[in-house]
Input
Amino acid sequence: MKSFPLWRFLPPFVRDRGGQHIGETITDHRGQVAYLKTFRLSDPQIRRGHLLRTLAGAGWELDRAAAALGSTGRSWSAGCGRPGSRPCSRAVSEDLPEAPGQRVSGPDAGLP
Output
């Protein structure tokens, strides 16, 4: 029996108000798609992905990530504590890897 590799993909998380999808595909031994499923991300999910990708690209250092976003670490972290910023604080507290250098497996493993 031939193998059927599974590939998961992520969008670039650019903030251009365009539709962005995450998903997975299973291909057969000839490379033809046997299964494809995508999910369209909401604007808050795209913003969170953009934030997390920026944090990862900055080595998970808040000050460097804030500078890349045109802010300061102090003002950015203060904004996370304001009412209504639950996605921001959740992104920082729950979605960060437990150890630096932790990566996901699959074709997107090298992406920040």
User: Anything to note?
Assistant: Residues 6-40 form one domain. The chain has a mean pLDDT of 76.
